[in-house]
Amino acid sequence: MSKLLDEVTILRKKLQEVHVPPDLEARVTANLEEIERLEHDISARVHIEQMMRYIDWVINLPWDIRSKDTLDLANARKIFESHHYGLQPVKERILEYLAVLKLNEDRWEKEKKVEEAHSTHSMLARRAPILCLVGLVGTGKTTLAKSIAEAMGRQFVRIAFGGMSDALELRGQSRVRPDAEIGLILKGLRYAGTKNPVMLLDEIDRVSEATRGDIMGVLVELLDPEQNSAFVDHYLDYPFDLSDVLFVATSNNTTNIATAVLDRLEPIQMPSYTDEEKIKIAREYVMPALLHESGLTSENLSIDDAIWPKLVRPLGYDAGIRSIERTLNSLCRKVALSIIEGKAKTFRVDETNIKDFIEAY
Questions:
Q1: In this model, does residue 73 exceed pLDDT 80?
Q2: Whole-prediction pTM
Q3: Which H or E run contains 248?
Protein backbone atom coordinates (compact mmCIF):
# COMPACT_ATOMS: atom_id res chain seq x y z
CA MET A 1 0.00 0.00 0.00
CA SER A 2 1.35 3.44 -0.94
CA LYS A 3 2.00 6.26 1.51
CA LEU A 4 -0.87 8.24 -0.01
CA LEU A 5 -3.35 5.40 0.55
CA ASP A 6 -2.09 5.07 4.12
CA GLU A 7 -2.91 8.73 4.70
CA VAL A 8 -6.36 8.26 3.13
CA THR A 9 -7.01 5.34 5.48
CA ILE A 10 -6.00 7.45 8.49
CA LEU A 11 -8.29 10.30 7.35
CA ARG A 12 -11.21 7.87 6.87
CA LYS A 13 -10.75 6.63 10.42
CA LYS A 14 -10.61 10.17 11.82
CA LEU A 15 -13.71 11.12 9.82
CA GLN A 16 -15.64 8.34 11.55
CA GLU A 17 -14.47 9.49 14.98
CA VAL A 18 -15.44 13.15 14.68
CA HIS A 19 -19.03 14.39 14.36
CA VAL A 20 -18.93 16.16 11.00
CA PRO A 21 -22.37 17.15 9.58
CA PRO A 22 -23.70 14.34 7.33
CA ASP A 23 -23.74 16.30 4.04
CA LEU A 24 -20.22 17.61 4.63
CA GLU A 25 -19.11 14.09 5.56
CA ALA A 26 -20.46 12.88 2.23
CA ARG A 27 -18.46 15.59 0.46
CA VAL A 28 -15.26 14.59 2.27
CA THR A 29 -15.87 10.90 1.53
CA ALA A 30 -16.25 11.73 -2.18
CA ASN A 31 -12.95 13.64 -2.05
CA LEU A 32 -11.22 10.66 -0.44
CA GLU A 33 -12.53 8.38 -3.17
CA GLU A 34 -11.32 10.84 -5.82
CA ILE A 35 -7.86 10.88 -4.22
CA GLU A 36 -7.75 7.09 -4.44
CA ARG A 37 -8.69 7.21 -8.14
CA LEU A 38 -6.03 9.82 -8.90
CA GLU A 39 -3.28 8.11 -6.91
CA HIS A 40 -1.16 7.24 -9.98
CA ASP A 41 -1.95 10.41 -11.96
CA ILE A 42 1.19 12.57 -11.65
CA SER A 43 -0.55 15.58 -13.20
CA ALA A 44 -3.11 15.58 -10.36
CA ARG A 45 -0.61 15.92 -7.49
CA VAL A 46 -1.44 19.57 -6.81
CA HIS A 47 -5.18 18.82 -6.85
CA ILE A 48 -4.65 15.92 -4.44
CA GLU A 49 -2.67 18.09 -2.04
CA GLN A 50 -5.43 20.71 -2.08
CA MET A 51 -8.07 18.08 -1.28
CA MET A 52 -5.93 16.58 1.49
CA ARG A 53 -5.47 20.01 3.07
CA TYR A 54 -9.20 20.69 2.87
CA ILE A 55 -10.08 17.33 4.44
CA ASP A 56 -7.56 17.96 7.22
CA TRP A 57 -9.28 21.25 8.07
CA VAL A 58 -12.76 19.70 8.03
CA ILE A 59 -11.74 16.87 10.34
CA ASN A 60 -9.88 19.07 12.83
CA LEU A 61 -12.49 21.77 13.36
CA PRO A 62 -14.37 21.51 16.71
CA TRP A 63 -17.84 20.74 15.31
CA ASP A 64 -19.29 19.63 18.64
CA ILE A 65 -16.51 20.08 21.20
CA ARG A 66 -17.35 22.54 23.96
CA SER A 67 -15.59 23.39 27.19
CA LYS A 68 -17.65 23.47 30.38
CA ASP A 69 -18.21 26.96 31.75
CA THR A 70 -17.17 27.53 35.36
CA LEU A 71 -19.43 30.42 36.30
CA ASP A 72 -18.16 30.94 39.86
CA LEU A 73 -18.49 34.68 40.47
CA ALA A 74 -16.39 34.62 43.63
CA ASN A 75 -13.55 32.98 41.72
CA ALA A 76 -14.06 35.38 38.80
CA ARG A 77 -13.79 38.37 41.12
CA LYS A 78 -10.63 36.90 42.63
CA ILE A 79 -9.09 36.46 39.16
CA PHE A 80 -9.93 40.04 38.14
CA GLU A 81 -8.46 41.42 41.36
CA SER A 82 -5.27 39.35 41.00
CA HIS A 83 -4.63 40.49 37.42
CA HIS A 84 -5.94 44.07 37.41
CA TYR A 85 -5.64 46.94 39.86
CA GLY A 86 -8.54 49.38 40.03
CA LEU A 87 -11.01 49.37 37.12
CA GLN A 88 -13.82 48.66 39.58
CA PRO A 89 -16.66 49.92 37.34
CA VAL A 90 -15.37 47.78 34.46
CA LYS A 91 -15.03 44.68 36.64
CA GLU A 92 -18.53 45.14 38.03
CA ARG A 93 -20.00 45.41 34.53
CA ILE A 94 -18.31 42.16 33.50
CA LEU A 95 -19.40 40.39 36.70
CA GLU A 96 -22.96 41.50 35.99
CA TYR A 97 -22.78 39.78 32.61
CA LEU A 98 -21.39 36.61 34.18
CA ALA A 99 -24.17 36.72 36.78
CA VAL A 100 -26.78 36.77 34.00
CA LEU A 101 -25.07 33.80 32.37
CA LYS A 102 -25.10 31.96 35.69
CA LEU A 103 -28.79 32.60 36.34
CA ASN A 104 -29.80 31.43 32.89
CA GLU A 105 -27.48 28.43 32.66
CA ASP A 106 -30.13 25.84 33.59
CA ARG A 107 -32.77 27.45 31.37
CA TRP A 108 -30.43 27.37 28.37
CA GLU A 109 -29.85 23.65 28.84
CA LYS A 110 -33.62 23.09 28.69
CA GLU A 111 -33.99 25.32 25.63
CA LYS A 112 -31.45 23.24 23.75
CA LYS A 113 -33.90 20.33 23.94
CA VAL A 114 -36.89 22.10 22.35
CA GLU A 115 -37.94 21.39 18.78
CA GLU A 116 -36.01 22.90 15.87
CA ALA A 117 -38.75 25.46 15.20
CA HIS A 118 -37.78 27.37 18.34
CA SER A 119 -34.00 27.13 17.87
CA THR A 120 -33.63 30.75 16.80
CA HIS A 121 -35.37 32.03 19.93
CA SER A 122 -33.27 29.73 22.07
CA MET A 123 -30.10 30.98 20.45
CA LEU A 124 -31.01 34.63 20.96
CA ALA A 125 -31.99 33.98 24.58
CA ARG A 126 -28.62 32.49 25.46
CA ARG A 127 -26.46 35.06 23.70
CA ALA A 128 -24.07 36.80 26.06
CA PRO A 129 -23.63 40.55 25.58
CA ILE A 130 -20.79 41.42 23.22
CA LEU A 131 -18.42 43.63 25.17
CA CYS A 132 -16.28 46.29 23.49
CA LEU A 133 -13.49 47.58 25.73
CA VAL A 134 -12.70 51.13 24.61
CA GLY A 135 -9.56 52.86 25.83
CA LEU A 136 -6.07 54.09 25.04
CA VAL A 137 -3.08 51.78 24.66
CA GLY A 138 -1.75 50.20 27.84
CA THR A 139 -4.97 50.46 29.82
CA GLY A 140 -5.41 46.68 30.10
CA LYS A 141 -8.01 45.86 27.42
CA THR A 142 -6.35 42.69 26.09
CA THR A 143 -5.36 41.33 29.50
CA LEU A 144 -8.89 41.93 30.77
CA ALA A 145 -10.26 39.82 27.91
CA LYS A 146 -7.82 37.04 28.89
CA SER A 147 -9.09 37.27 32.46
CA ILE A 148 -12.68 36.84 31.25
CA ALA A 149 -11.65 33.61 29.51
CA GLU A 150 -9.82 32.41 32.63
CA ALA A 151 -12.76 33.27 34.87
CA MET A 152 -15.16 31.31 32.64
CA GLY A 153 -12.83 28.36 32.13
CA ARG A 154 -12.83 28.87 28.37
CA GLN A 155 -10.04 28.83 25.81
CA PHE A 156 -8.80 32.24 24.65
CA VAL A 157 -8.24 33.27 21.02
CA ARG A 158 -6.97 36.66 19.87
CA ILE A 159 -7.46 38.00 16.34
CA ALA A 160 -5.53 41.18 15.59
CA PHE A 161 -7.35 43.67 13.38
CA GLY A 162 -4.58 46.29 13.41
CA GLY A 163 -3.65 46.98 9.79
CA MET A 164 -5.95 44.26 8.41
CA SER A 165 -6.37 45.04 4.73
CA ASP A 166 -8.61 42.29 3.37
CA ALA A 167 -11.93 40.90 4.59
CA LEU A 168 -10.87 37.51 3.18
CA GLU A 169 -8.39 37.25 6.06
CA LEU A 170 -11.45 36.74 8.28
CA ARG A 171 -13.69 34.87 5.87
CA GLY A 172 -11.12 32.74 4.04
CA GLN A 173 -10.31 32.39 0.35
CA SER A 174 -12.10 30.28 -2.22
CA ARG A 175 -10.44 26.95 -2.96
CA VAL A 176 -10.45 27.90 -6.62
CA ARG A 177 -7.21 29.70 -5.79
CA PRO A 178 -4.27 27.26 -5.56
CA ASP A 179 -2.83 29.06 -2.50
CA ALA A 180 -6.18 29.48 -0.73
CA GLU A 181 -6.25 29.58 3.08
CA ILE A 182 -9.00 29.27 5.63
CA GLY A 183 -10.02 32.42 7.50
CA LEU A 184 -8.70 33.63 10.85
CA ILE A 185 -12.00 32.90 12.62
CA LEU A 186 -11.96 29.17 11.91
CA LYS A 187 -8.18 29.06 12.37
CA GLY A 188 -8.76 30.43 15.86
CA LEU A 189 -11.39 27.79 16.61
CA ARG A 190 -9.06 24.99 15.52
CA TYR A 191 -6.31 26.46 17.68
CA ALA A 192 -8.70 26.66 20.67
CA GLY A 193 -9.97 23.12 20.13
CA THR A 194 -13.50 24.09 21.24
CA LYS A 195 -16.40 25.84 19.57
CA ASN A 196 -17.11 28.11 22.57
CA PRO A 197 -13.89 30.01 23.29
CA VAL A 198 -13.60 33.65 24.28
CA MET A 199 -12.55 35.27 21.00
CA LEU A 200 -10.90 38.68 21.24
CA LEU A 201 -11.37 40.92 18.20
CA ASP A 202 -8.47 43.22 18.97
CA GLU A 203 -8.35 46.85 17.79
CA ILE A 204 -11.29 46.65 15.41
CA ASP A 205 -10.99 50.41 14.75
CA ARG A 206 -7.49 50.09 13.22
CA VAL A 207 -8.29 48.23 10.01
CA SER A 208 -7.13 49.57 6.65
CA GLU A 209 -9.15 52.55 5.45
CA ALA A 210 -9.52 51.16 1.92
CA THR A 211 -11.22 47.95 3.01
CA ARG A 212 -12.95 49.11 6.19
CA GLY A 213 -16.41 48.66 4.66
CA ASP A 214 -15.82 45.02 3.69
CA ILE A 215 -14.26 44.12 7.05
CA MET A 216 -17.06 45.82 8.97
CA GLY A 217 -19.53 43.81 6.90
CA VAL A 218 -17.93 40.57 8.04
CA LEU A 219 -17.94 41.85 11.64
CA VAL A 220 -21.68 42.47 11.45
CA GLU A 221 -22.18 38.84 10.44
CA LEU A 222 -19.86 37.61 13.22
CA LEU A 223 -21.51 39.64 15.96
CA ASP A 224 -25.16 39.28 14.92
CA PRO A 225 -26.75 36.23 16.60
CA GLU A 226 -29.23 35.96 13.73
CA GLN A 227 -26.36 35.42 11.28
CA ASN A 228 -23.37 33.88 13.05
CA SER A 229 -25.09 30.56 13.64
CA ALA A 230 -24.38 29.83 9.97
CA PHE A 231 -21.10 31.63 9.28
CA VAL A 232 -19.72 30.55 5.90
CA ASP A 233 -15.96 30.60 5.40
CA HIS A 234 -15.12 30.72 1.67
CA TYR A 235 -12.48 28.02 2.08
CA LEU A 236 -14.64 25.62 4.09
CA ASP A 237 -17.68 26.44 1.93
CA TYR A 238 -20.04 25.15 4.60
CA PRO A 239 -21.96 26.92 7.42
CA PHE A 240 -20.26 26.79 10.83
CA ASP A 241 -22.13 27.64 14.03
CA LEU A 242 -20.41 30.49 15.92
CA SER A 243 -23.30 31.18 18.30
CA ASP A 244 -21.42 29.59 21.22
CA VAL A 245 -18.38 31.86 20.83
CA LEU A 246 -18.14 34.68 23.37
CA PHE A 247 -16.84 37.62 21.36
CA VAL A 248 -15.01 40.47 23.09
CA ALA A 249 -13.86 43.47 21.06
CA THR A 250 -11.36 46.22 21.84
CA SER A 251 -10.73 49.60 20.25
CA ASN A 252 -8.89 52.82 20.97
CA ASN A 253 -12.02 54.81 20.11
CA THR A 254 -15.34 54.24 18.39
CA THR A 255 -14.98 56.86 15.65
CA ASN A 256 -13.84 54.41 12.96
CA ILE A 257 -16.27 51.62 13.85
CA ALA A 258 -19.26 51.28 11.53
CA THR A 259 -22.62 52.15 13.08
CA ALA A 260 -24.02 48.70 12.24
CA VAL A 261 -21.14 47.06 14.15
CA LEU A 262 -21.33 49.47 17.08
CA ASP A 263 -25.06 48.77 17.33
CA ARG A 264 -24.24 45.15 18.19
CA LEU A 265 -21.64 46.00 20.85
CA GLU A 266 -21.78 47.04 24.50
CA PRO A 267 -19.02 49.70 24.80
CA ILE A 268 -17.22 49.84 28.15
CA GLN A 269 -14.86 52.77 28.66
CA MET A 270 -11.45 51.85 30.07
CA PRO A 271 -10.19 54.72 32.25
CA SER A 272 -6.68 56.15 32.11
CA TYR A 273 -4.42 55.56 35.11
CA THR A 274 -3.19 58.24 37.49
CA ASP A 275 0.49 58.31 38.50
CA GLU A 276 -0.39 56.81 41.88
CA GLU A 277 -2.27 53.96 40.22
CA LYS A 278 0.62 53.32 37.84
CA ILE A 279 3.05 53.07 40.75
CA LYS A 280 0.75 50.61 42.52
CA ILE A 281 0.37 48.51 39.35
CA ALA A 282 4.10 48.62 38.63
CA ARG A 283 5.10 47.54 42.14
CA GLU A 284 2.52 44.83 42.74
CA TYR A 285 1.75 43.47 39.26
CA VAL A 286 4.34 44.42 36.64
CA MET A 287 7.58 44.18 38.62
CA PRO A 288 7.06 40.64 40.02
CA ALA A 289 6.23 39.37 36.53
CA LEU A 290 9.28 41.05 34.97
CA LEU A 291 11.58 39.72 37.70
CA HIS A 292 10.32 36.20 37.01
CA GLU A 293 10.75 36.58 33.24
CA SER A 294 14.26 37.94 33.68
CA GLY A 295 15.39 35.14 35.98
CA LEU A 296 15.73 37.55 38.91
CA THR A 297 14.30 37.58 42.42
CA SER A 298 13.35 40.37 44.81
CA GLU A 299 16.70 39.74 46.51
CA ASN A 300 18.58 40.60 43.31
CA LEU A 301 16.80 43.89 42.67
CA SER A 302 14.99 46.38 44.87
CA ILE A 303 13.88 49.94 44.19
CA ASP A 304 13.85 52.77 46.72
CA ASP A 305 10.41 54.22 47.44
CA ALA A 306 11.53 57.69 46.35
CA ILE A 307 12.45 56.38 42.90
CA TRP A 308 9.04 55.05 41.85
CA PRO A 309 7.50 58.46 40.99
CA LYS A 310 10.46 59.11 38.67
CA LEU A 311 9.98 55.79 36.88
CA VAL A 312 6.37 56.56 35.98
CA ARG A 313 7.16 59.01 33.22
CA PRO A 314 10.82 59.69 32.58
CA LEU A 315 10.13 60.61 28.95
CA GLY A 316 6.57 61.95 29.11
CA TYR A 317 3.05 60.78 29.96
CA ASP A 318 0.80 58.08 28.58
CA ALA A 319 -2.62 56.86 29.66
CA GLY A 320 -1.55 53.27 30.26
CA ILE A 321 1.41 51.43 31.75
CA ARG A 322 3.42 50.73 28.59
CA SER A 323 6.08 53.36 29.36
CA ILE A 324 6.78 52.23 32.91
CA GLU A 325 6.69 48.60 31.73
CA ARG A 326 9.44 49.32 29.17
CA THR A 327 11.44 51.24 31.76
CA LEU A 328 11.29 48.40 34.28
CA ASN A 329 12.07 45.82 31.61
CA SER A 330 15.20 47.73 30.65
CA LEU A 331 16.16 47.97 34.34
CA CYS A 332 15.80 44.19 34.80
CA ARG A 333 17.96 43.50 31.74
CA LYS A 334 20.74 45.76 33.00
CA VAL A 335 20.70 44.06 36.40
CA ALA A 336 20.74 40.62 34.76
CA LEU A 337 23.78 41.61 32.68
CA SER A 338 25.59 42.95 35.74
CA ILE A 339 24.95 39.71 37.65
CA ILE A 340 26.21 37.56 34.77
CA GLU A 341 29.31 39.72 34.47
CA GLY A 342 29.98 39.13 38.17
CA LYS A 343 29.74 42.77 39.27
CA ALA A 344 27.38 41.98 42.15
CA LYS A 345 24.49 39.77 43.18
CA THR A 346 22.28 42.40 44.82
CA PHE A 347 21.28 45.82 43.47
CA ARG A 348 19.22 48.63 44.98
CA VAL A 349 18.19 51.55 42.81
CA ASP A 350 18.17 54.89 44.66
CA GLU A 351 18.85 58.58 44.06
CA THR A 352 22.60 58.07 43.87
CA ASN A 353 22.70 55.44 41.13
CA ILE A 354 19.48 55.90 39.13
CA LYS A 355 21.43 57.26 36.15
CA ASP A 356 23.34 53.98 35.96
CA PHE A 357 20.13 52.01 35.42
CA ILE A 358 17.64 54.39 33.74
CA GLU A 359 18.89 55.89 30.49
CA ALA A 360 16.40 58.77 30.63
CA TYR A 361 18.28 60.17 33.57
A1: yes
A2: 0.81
A3: strand 246-251
